[in-house]
Amino acid sequence: MRTPGLIDPHVHMREPGGEHKEDWESGTRAALAGGVTMVLAMPNTKPSVTDSDTLATALSAARTKAVCDYAQFLGAGSGNLTKAATLAPFTAGLKMYLDQTFGTLKLNNMEDWLNHFRNWPSSSPLCVHAEGPSLATAILLAELTNRPVHLCHISLRSEILLIKAAKERGIPVTCEVTPHHLFLSQDDVSTIGPGRSEVRPMLASRADVQALWDNLEYIDCFATDHAPHTLQEKDGENPPPGFPGLESALPLYLTAAAEGRLTIDDIITRSVTNPRRIFHLPEQPDTFVEIDPQARWTFSAANTYTRCGWSPFEGYTMTGRVISVTLRGKVVYQDGKITTKSGSGQNIRPALNGIQ
Ligand code: NCD
Ligand code: ZN
Ligand code: ZN
Ligand code: ZN
């Protein structure tokens, strides 16, 4: 069976500054192994991507290393309220952190929230990490400023019900859900372990997970929020939040399809069609994934490309497997091997100062 290349609108490539966890090479290799041919990278790196210099640093690394297509988000800060907009064409969009998570980009001042919503061009994507009451505020700001907002990794029954109500009223909101919030709950914490199960938003109750499945029609995108941290970090003193996800996502969706909980069309709508529309992404010609939907196999982090070395889905029996990936006419992944060279991925946005 053949599907289009998947688009993952929420990944952390960790470069610059976190290359021991992942870099543009290992992260985009993991993407191809998971059937993902385009990634949108988050700005909570070290330093954060908040201006033209840091954007250029991230894009230069991507240019020489990436093996799938990509774009880079800009982070909203209190120091780039007006300047950010000038960089919009060169970015995947603007990412705003309204709550605390990994990194230093949390915006504490609500006035900054309003000003970023006002100043960022409404033709360019605006994404928020917003949980609970902050999510409600983000929806209000979309209404007040009459611009689209994309709500990252929603996880709760109360959140999906609020989004449903906002959509029914015509407020321009879209949202994404991660595989871990669809396939894991608080009940899995003891199996995964306390440090390893740290993630933002936290794993939710089984009732929350069920509410996401019951309201699938209001979920626009599946996004992995691929957030690699090493095993040493996850099992150490202050475990940072985040799960790897690129290589387990499509197998999990295909397994759900084999069980009759999703259709292939549900997967493609949320992993290709909707992300392409919401994030204004170009089509990738001659790009597709060859899948064996019947293959039964055991997922193991030992066989992954991500540098982090672990997975919350270790030992899961999957039904459905990626056989090969073709990107712009070239076989780039086949039978477990990457068959393209570093830097063959393309920035899908215009060149910034010649960095394409
Ligand atoms: C992400 C990370 O590690 O960068 N962690 C996470 O738990 N999701 C940050 C984020 O997406 O909130
Ligand atoms: Zn987040
Ligand atoms: Zn997102
Ligand atoms: Zn994230």
Automatic annotation (TrEMBL):
The keyword Metal-binding applies. Its cofactor is Zn(2+). One of its GO terms (cellular component) is cytoplasm. Residues 9-23 have a biased composition (Basic and acidic residues). It holds the Pfam family DHOase. The keyword Chaperone does not apply. One of its GO terms (molecular function) is metal ion binding. Residues 1-23 are annotated as: Disordered. Keywords: Hydrolase, Metal-binding, Pyrimidine biosynthesis. It comes from the Bacteria. GO terms for biological process: purine nucleobase catabolic process. Catalyzes the reversible cyclization of carbamoyl aspartate to dihydroorotate. Belongs to the metallo-dependent hydrolases superfamily. DHOase family. Class I DHOase subfamily. This is Dihydroorotase catalytic domain-containing protein. It comes from Leptolinea tardivitalis.
